[in-house]
Specification:
The complex is a heterodimer of chains A (151) and B (184).
Chain A (H helix, E strand, L loop, with lengths): L1 H10 L4 E6 L5 H10 L11 E2 L8 E5 L2 E2 L3 H10 L5 E5 L1 H5 L15 E3 L9 E4 L5 H19 L1
Parallel strand pairs in A: 1-2, 1-3, 3-5, 5-7
Antiparallel strand pairs in A: 4-6
Helix pairs in contact in A: 2-5
Chain B lengths: L1 H11 L22 E3 L9 H5 L5 E5 L5 E7 L8 H5 L5 E3 L5 E3 L6 E3 L3 E2 L2 E3 L6 E4 H14 L2 H15 L3 H11 L8
Antiparallel strand pairs in B: 1-4, 2-3, 3-6, 3-7, 8-9
Helix pairs in contact in B: 4-5
Classes of the chains: A alpha/beta (151), B alpha+beta (184).
The complex binds iron/sulfur cluster (SF4) (3 copies).
């Protein structure tokens, strides 16, 4: 009981962040990297970038799901320990963006669409690409959600 | 010495890190956010929906040719601005929205109020053609921009052709002949 409270207190200001690109044009990935640089610096909020899914609390996914990336997206999702928050960053990750169309026949044959076709998503960030400020907003929102999930 | 200078400079300069959540973001003057529309100006011409590369903005028929809504779906919009450029009545404009986040996708869709379509139907085959305000807009433009000599004839032709659907229009054009000499 006390230990749990201690853990929650310790976790409160240290959401660890992972980044995964499953398709798209790389624009959003660069914006996320931009948010890590000294100019925007998400470490101000205790967020640390981690490159292994097993250490990650918040996963930022960029790009649309392609036929080739379905399996590794699922596998990485399963590797993240609970509780986890998945953030879809960019129009591609939200809906498929420029690689798909509202009209199914005008979409690419190799693209499934947004990542919520494959894994559950907690927060959607639209924009092509979203500004680093939007990514910071999403991160703060995700940290709040994470604290709620830990309760 | 060089290092000392660097240290002094670092001590006196403010940090480069933005104070973002505390202070508002700085947007460049030419920042293009996803578009918003002015409902009263839209003439339902479908130009925006035909150029949008992702199908984000479209005019949706909600009751079998009776009522339509103009919809902009921010989950699809890539802020490319093609719709804003093409819109003949300047009904669309870019917003300066930069942080669009939501926990559900449905929160993103922006739709206009429903508008009764007053479809003009083809006088030959009764197919719906387009909205009355669209035809009126084109007629206004023609009468504004055509030279004096051809205006009356052109408008007369326009009246005759605009009451037909594309298929019947082709038939009529074949019958009348559309050689350029007609206008000389
Ligand atoms: S949302 Fe736009 S910038 Fe981001 S990956 Fe897709 S195409 Fe690239
Ligand atoms: S800005 Fe581009 S993507 Fe967005 S609605 Fe207009 S045409 Fe479509
Ligand atoms: S292009 Fe402009 S006037 Fe035409 S349907 Fe779109 S918003 Fe309406």
């Amino acid at each position: 009981m006390v230990l749990n409270a201690l853990f929650r207190w310790a976790f409160r200001r240290s959401p660890w962040v992972g980044l995964l690109q499953v398709g798209g044009c790389n624009g959003c990935t660069i914006e996320v990297v931009d948010a890590l640089t000294p100019r925007f610096d998400i470490e101000r909020f205790g967020a640390v970038y981690k490159s292994t899914p097993r250490h990650v609390d918040i996963l930022l996914v960029t790009g649309c799901v392609t036929v080739g990336s379905v399996n590794f997206l699922k596998r990485i999702y399963d590797q993240i320990p609970d509780p986890k928050v998945i953030v879809a960053v960019g129009t591609c990750a939200v809906s498929g963006g420029i690689f798909t169309n509202r009209v199914e026949s005008a979409s690419s044959y190799a693209v499934l669409g947004g990542i919520d076709r494959v894994i559950p998503v907690d927060i959607y960030v639209a924009g092509c690409p979203p500004k680093p400020e939007a990514i910071i907003d999403a991160l703060l929102e995700a940290a709040k959600l994470l604290a709620e999930k830990r309760q | 010495m060089k290092l000392l200078k660097e240290i002094l400079r670092a001590l006196t300069r403010p940090p480069v890190t933005t104070q973002y959540p505390a202070k508002p973001a700085s947007l460049p003057p030419s920042f293009r956010g996803p578009p918003d529309f002015d409902d009263a100006r839209c003439i339902r011409c479908f130009a925006c929906s035909s150029v949008c590369p992702t199908g984000a903005c479209y005019v949706q028929d909600i009751s079998d040719g009776e009522r339509t809504v103009l919809i902009i779906d921010y989950t699809r919009c890539i802020s490319c601005g093609r719709c804003v450029t093409i819109c003949p009545t300047d009904a669309l404009h870019h917003t300066r929205e930069y942080s669009l986040l939501a926990s559900r996708k449905t929160l993103y869709t922006l739709s206009s109020t429903e508008v009764d379509v007053r479809f003009i139907r083809c006088t030959e085959c009764n197919q719906p053609i387009t909205d009355v305000s669209h035809i009126r807009f084109i007629a206004d433009r023609l009468s504004e921009n055509l030279p004096e000599e051809v205006r009356d004839r052109a408008l007369e032709d326009f009246k005759r052709f605009s009451s037909l659907c594309p298929a019947c229009r082709t038939k009529l054009a074949r019958k009348l002949g559309t050689s350029p000499e007609k206008w000389c």
